[in-house]
């Protein structure tokens, strides 16, 4: 259906894109302006969903791929072509949806999996087939004993409350019932305790976790229709792999103090597999065959994760896309002009090596990157909040997106589209064919060569020693600058806090803008902090000499702008000292020195 639609509309779409698509940056060829072909757009589809709840699959084994949308309205909607084929009610808001082959039977029919709360609902032929429920969490014996004694009457309400409060403040995890008990008002605690005691009838409370993310990994063969297994991430920091029939968990891994937010799996489960886990606290955990190989600390919170050619890509809240290899080393970083709303990997059947990335930005841009190379940019009327790429209908390469207004947009990637991103031609560079101008050998050169041959070991040893001394001196000087606050970048680890302050001055003068970027890399929030500026009052004037800071939460970056004015441009330049202090201690938490630039004279 989509193929015939593409043929009928190809001429009109090519003309329409010339007016609808804005001017592409000069770095892109003019032919890239019509990179996507518009196949279908329904502005009144009224869809609200995340990218993890958007998936295409061959639900009936007839080769006609359908779109499944698990929306925030607790509805599972299935689209066939341009029309909605069916609608199913869900028990709660879904967190993820995917499809997989559960067996080797023919015809090959994919099973649709929808994660809702602690359950995974499996659909075959769009009919409920099986439900997998996460096992309950382990409850400590101390907590069980307190609830039993409370129901039996051997403990009073005050004693039970005190015991559960002591337990919740420790390192032992507690159930949601105990957490709810700690939030009760003092006036109604007796009635609430009686209600909770009667509710559980003497049985210990049960803690049930929920599913936060889901993906698939192939089991034994790397084929398109090979049997796959579901990989689940839970709120309690667990990652588990289900059997192909999704009735039991075959692998179970526990992450310490990490809550999975996004999953990306590759390889074969029975041979060698890797799982990249983007957590809710701004970290990426890499696992190989069930063992944690490395942990990456991101500069900002993750928004999505996708596979690349030799690693994986992570989109962050600081408008960047970072690429890491399989060992956890960052290979490159792409800065985007606007915050990221959605991202998805792009891999075509004709160019399997080119694993690109489609990124939707808040300014309405839809960008395609091949590694750090920009391939295509188009401007949409409404920003895209969710997207998926894959087969749809009879088309191989289709981008399906949901706009901010709830519209459904379907675009087709042409088979002739080149995803190289304007890279240079392969092969040796042309400079390699130019012969080098080698000077003639002289008697001095020959004597020097013989001396180096005779003393090669001693010369190499001396060089290594001097190199180590230079590195040590450089590290000491850098550490002194960072800890003493003598530079525009300052780091502090005092008072159980880990802070980084970056200062930048903008403007030609006499009016300047001082931009301060502050980030708390610790595990606890910082309250009651303030910034103080110390400077020469005869040379500069600041809009605010002292600024009270909000609560500095971990892993979030805060930016503050302060207006500075040079009162006497003829006096030269001076420095401004920035101090950050807390009401709990007279010692500054960190300090930094900002050298002001030379100011221009103010025009009369």
Q: What is the radius of gyration? A: 30 Å
What order do the strands of the largest sheet run in, or round the barrel if closed?
29-30-31-35-33
Q: What is the strand tally?
A: 37
Mean pLDDT: 81
Any low-confidence stretches, pLDDT <50, length ≥5?
Answer: 1-33
Largest sheet: 5 strands, antiparallel
What best-fitting shape do the alpha-carbon axes yield? globular
Note the beta-strand portion. Answer: 35-45%
Structure classification: alpha+beta
**Distance, first to last CA:** 70 Å
**Helical coverage, percent range:** 10-25%
If helices are DSSP runs of H or I spanning 4 or more residues, what is the number of helices?
A: 7
Features:
alpha+beta; 7 helices; four-stranded antiparallel beta sheet; 604 residues; five-stranded antiparallel beta sheet; disordered N terminus
Structural description of this entry:
With 604 residues, the chain is an alpha+beta fold. Helices cover 17% and strands 41% of the residues. The protein is built from seven helices and 37 strands. A five-stranded antiparallel β-sheet has the order 29-30-31-35-33. It has a four-stranded antiparallel β-sheet with strand order 1-28-27-26. A hairpin with a 2-residue loop joins strand 26 and strand 27 (395-403). Helix 3 packs across helix 4.
